[in-house]
Amino acid sequence: MELIVSEKYNAAERIAGILSKDSATRETVSGVTVFKWGGTYCMGLAGHVVKVDFPDEYNDWGSVSPASLVDVEITKRASKPDIVSALNTLASEADRVIIATDYDREGELIGKEAYDLVRAVNDTAPVDRVRFSSLTGPEVRNAFEDPDEIDFDLAAAGEARQRIDLRWGASLTRFLTLASNQRGDGFISVGRVQTPTLKLLVDREREIEDFDPDDYWEIYADLGQTLDGDSFEAQYFFLNDQENEAERLWDEETANAVYRDVDDASEATVETVDESTRNDNPPIPFNTTEFIKAANAIGYDAKPAMNVAEDLYDDGYVTYPRTDNTVYPDDLDPRELLETLSEASPFEADAEALLDQESISPTAGETETTDHPPIHPTEDVPKKKALKGREWEIYELIVRRFFATLADAATWRKLRVDVDVEGHSLKANGSRLVDPGYHAVYPYYDTGETTIPAVAEGDALQIVESRLDEKQTRPPNRYGQSQLVEKMESLGLGTKSTRHNTIEKLYDRDYVTGNPPEPTDLARKVVSATEEYGAHVASAEMTAQLEADMTAIADGGTTLDDVTGSSREMLEDVFDDLQRARDEIGELLRAEIDESDSVGDCPECGEPLLPRQANSGSRFVGCNGYPDCEFTLPLPNKGRPHILDELCDDHGLHHVKMIAGSKTFVFGCPRCQQRDAADTDDRVIGDCPECHAREGGELAIKRVHSGSRLVGCTRYPDCEYSLPLPREGEIEVTDDVCGDHDLPEVVVHQEDSSPWQLGCPICNYERYKN
DNA sequence: GCAAGGTC
What we know:
Layout: E1 2-6, H1 9-20, E2 25-29, E3 32-37, E4 40-44, E5 50-53, E6 75-78, H2 81-92, E7 96-100, H3 105-121, E8 127-129, H4 137-145, H5 152-179, H6 194-210, E9 215-224, E10 231-239, E11 245-246, H7 252-264, E12 267-280, H8 288-297, H9 302-314, H10 334-342, H11 348-355, H12 389-406, E13 410-421, E14 424-435, E15 460-472, H13 481-491, H14 499-508, E16 512-513, E17 518-519, H15 521-533, H16 535-538, H17 541-554, H18 560-580, H19 582-589, E18 600-601, E19 608-613, E20 619-623, E21 632-634, E22 640-647, E23 654-659, E24 665-668, H20 670-679, E25 683-687, H21 692-695, E26 698-703, E27 709-713, E28 722-724, E29 730-737, E30 744-749, E31 756-759, H22 761-769
Helix pairs in contact: 2-3, 3-5, 5-17, 5-18, 6-15, 8-13, 9-12, 10-11
This protein binds one DNA strand through helix 3 and helix 5.
């Protein structure tokens, strides 16, 4: 017996129909419908039927540290038990198995998963792989006549993605969730695709908030043959330094001066009249992104649009809606499809008009793939009554887009008139649609015309009215859903099948609200936390790197283990930083800030000031309003900060104690410490042994940001030479000079103890080292 | 309860 395995039910049905010449019968195996003819069975999977996961004992978030997910083995288990069971049953009896999953990377992995399942119950039957670019008779028959082998390297590339996504996503999600004491469905989710997508929205929101508008002016005049007849609008322009045409005046004085001239004048003289013809080419075929964009324009969000398209596909009315392809395959005969569509009354006239064109040559986009054709209607045309309102609306959009890709270009007549007013130039642009071309069958684009009357060079026109508009530059707009899908596509984030789902997920997780999606406070905090501590997962760069690695795996240039191994090392480093900053991250993410955690109110914005730790490990007091407010104060790096009840008389801030075992000490008011540090002028005590000969660097006693002191080179950061000094006590620089190092001897005066003869800082450091 | 990717 021979077994054919395809990626989905619909494909299995088509393949069975083609290969059996429609003689295949249905049978049910383990509750799954399969197709049978002669000695052949054909079954469809449902995409991935196995799932990567951690071992069961790692499912308890409470008892397993998120960091341990970095190293634990990843297992696979059946996620579609019925289908796996049907495959087992059929595969165990098969003498030959043919993998016919989609012709793309994920299809190769799904095929390899089926191969593993087959091999578990049957270690002898040969397993072949067939690849075809469309589910049509010639393509499919061709592929089965000349079968190939599974590309295990390509499948391994897909598996690398699975493993890396699971490890990073699950471990970081658990870490952030637990660190912020979130419970239940309030978990804080991050991932390679969703977090950079969210960051796009947050970054744009930051841009909008930070936007500083500029004033500018525009000048308009309404011109007519007579003062009370028809008029048209002309706009002032000038040539800027680059000799480009500009309409915006950035200087109020100039704007007023030009406007006075125009306003005082009563006539304009026509200088030039330019007439031209512009071709307006029809749009490219629908891939998923183009479809979502068009559906968006008629009021559908990304996810609902895809849901309707998937329903239409299931009913057989349109081709597969998840595709990157923008080039119709050779086996699509547009004329034949037009004839079929013309038999359906609502489209008859438009289809006939297209069939009457001199030639029919479809447009094509830049992306051509091998798995599915661009979205187009099938030969099976539904009656309008058979569909719900939304379904018909989307179906009509797909039919009309197909029409548009076959239609002629539209032609516009453009008219440009330049006039002179007192030495100033004004222009008017008119446009008229002389041949509607594809617009006749695709009425979704604006074809508004701007009319300008016939004028000739040298004509004098009346200035009916003039206007000085004061305007301001505006911040960028938020991303709309379809723009976001396009941006994701250009960055390689997600796939045709997932982008709309990822956006939906951002809504479900309370990361965005409204439309266009606006990021919530939680989203800003999650993005800030991941930017600071797990930057790789917040950046689209991770995907770019993964794509490159997957290509290398597929080409045999590297291996799955190498790629996942170095990814794990990187994740380990991320966790080193995360563990150190766990408390700070928790505070950052927690919705309500506990007053007892705060040093006081930020003098700049009033938000609570909180002890934090940077990626580098260094501690500081930061404003909870970050990143909007960047106010900080120093903290020592040694020990954990503890907020005391005692308040500073000068600044009203709590004193801070640093808990560090026997080295525990009271740091005091961070603001006083900052002031004192700033007041301490660097005292030069000698030459830098590292760089004085070459660069003239000198050694000075310094107090650094954290409040600790050192002897360091004045050329820091170019020269990093430094020697330690004690934190506490007043430092006296004596006149005694060390014979070995030519530096003064130092004495430290501490409260409650006799002076500490520290001596030459270099000698002191040598002793300390030993 | 975690990701992203298939598909239903």
